[in-house]
Amino acid sequence: MHTIVLATQKGGSGKSTLVVGLALAAKQAGFTVRLIETDLQGTLSNWRRRRTADDLVVEPIYHAIDIEPRLKMLADSGLQLAIIDTAAGLSAATTAAIRHCDLCLIPARPSVADIEATASTLSVARAWKRPYSFVLNQTPIRGQRIDNAANTLAEEAAHDLTEVLARPLIVMRNDHQDSLAAGLAVSEFAPNSKSADEVRGLWQWIETRLELAATTNVRSDQVVTATDGMLHAAELSSDKTTILAS
Ligand SMILES: Nc1ncnc2c1ncn2[C@@H]1O[C@H](COP(=O)(O)OP(=O)(O)OP(=O)(O)O)[C@@H](O)[C@H]1O
Ligand SMILES: [Mg+2]
């Protein structure tokens, strides 16, 4: 089973929207998918209530301690893909989700505030030596703003852009908001639209990234730095309390 987590400290960057979009894109590509909601805000559960098809389960897991055993049970049951939506901020549940994922996707709008807010999530992913990628979301169709944002993310991660930035970028389009409101994913709401193409393209990029992550060892640059080590220690102690902080 592959486990993907969408996480970033910044609210409204598109975590839940991308979770829904990617879940349906993966399902349409033939994967069995389970959505896991660690965010008490309940965006996914609300979306699921608006949905008429009963093809996807949204499973709320609010306590950090429950995440690993539940993922193991799902993997043992033969599920192919779990996608975890997290709350803004950095809670014990979010760090547990990152710790047990195969890929941490960090969405960011092309703004300084969003990009700065990726730092803590990046540190946790590195501390637990989990593969990560940024997803630039709600971008304009083109422009210098995108290039600047992409380059800043690559600098922050001290990595080559092609490795750390998922493709394609997800443009700001009304389809994303309208599909969520209708209990649909964008690939169902507007299957022939550019927005659906982008999300399907993003899923394909992720599939390739997951295969790579499964076959390569942790990279040598993903060493635990002093700061990361402190986060690591904080996670160990928060595991004991297992209380959702947000
Ligand atoms: N590519 C996009 N184009 C247009 N609107 C978008 C796009 N991505 C997300 N949105 C909209 O932006 C808003 C915030 O998105 P979303 O709720 O997915 O963010 P979030 O990171 O999950 O927020 P929170 O941190 O509150 O959980 C929603 O209204 C959503 O429909
Ligand atoms: Mg959300």
UniProtKB/TrEMBL annotation:
User: Per its UniProt record, what SUPFAM superfamilies does this chain match?
Assistant: P-loop containing nucleoside triphosphate hydrolases
Database matches in Gene3D superfamilies:
P-loop containing nucleotide triphosphate hydrolases
Q: Which residues form the CobQ/CobB/MinD/ParA nucleotide binding domain?
A: 4-155
Q: Which CDD domains match?
A: ParAB_family
Superkingdom of origin organism: Bacteria
Q: Name one Pfam family in it.
A: CbiA
Protein name as it appears in the record = ParA family protein
Species annotation = Bradyrhizobium hipponense
Classification from the root reads: Bacteria, Pseudomonadati, Pseudomonadota, Alphaproteobacteria, Hyphomicrobiales
